[in-house]
Amino acid sequence: MSYANMALVYDNLMKDAPYDKWVEYVKQQALFFNKSNEQISLVDVGCGTGELAVRLKKDGFHVSGTDLSETMLTIARRKAENLSLTFPLFQQDMTELQVDEKVDMITIFCDSINYLPTKEAVIQTFHSCYAALKNGGLLLLDAHSPYKIDLFLENEPFYEIDEEVTYIWSCSEGENTLEVTHDLTFFLLNPDTNEYQRFDEWHRQKTYQVNEWKGFLQSAGFKILSVTADFTDEPPHEASERIFFCVQK
């Protein structure tokens, strides 16, 4: 599983992602602290190219970001600089999250948690997040539902043809239950040669039933405050695609 090439086209792939809805979800949960955004410290784990972190910074949060991919972080730094924003970015594995000072909030969005290969890695991540939070701090995360995994398999392949980037995205059932493998082939235009360069990526995502996620979180010491679906205040149902967890240390 590599993210070096993916980073070059990530923002193109995510151009329709609901970043504004993630920001609103964070702002809604942040009301819990009864203080201004500027007084709230937040780490965006799995921050990718920094799109969400940039938006949260613009809304006043005291933001930092972590990601496994240095290439993703390089793009995030450039993006922040272009907007005259400054915030720390660190290359870290989310299972070993470390902070200099404990924070009020941690976010793990855009199904980043689904990239962890085992439940042991998930639980270790939750323990790391618990240790990084202040007492009373919040962890906010989302995860693919089992229904969403089925949708990947039913609706594949996906593709997009664009002048600068063309991709073919196929999905197959993973070796384990509630697991999907993504095989992506990209053709990226080189503006210097006016030729397309091909590269391939392979990714695996795994999810769990809602009660299993809750059990993992509780085993790390978290108190479950809310479990909702698809950017609503409603609990998950059989056709929910994205499950949100708000939990407290």
Automatic annotation (TrEMBL):
Flavoprotein listed as a keyword: no
GO molecular function, one term: methyltransferase activity
One of the GO biological process terms: methylation
Domain Methyltransferase: 43-137
Organism domain of life: Bacteria
Alphabetized Pfam families for the sequence: Methyltransf_25
CDD domains, sorted: AdoMet_MTases
Keywords: Methyltransferase, Transferase
Protein name (database record): Methyltransferase family protein
Species of origin: Bacillus oleivorans
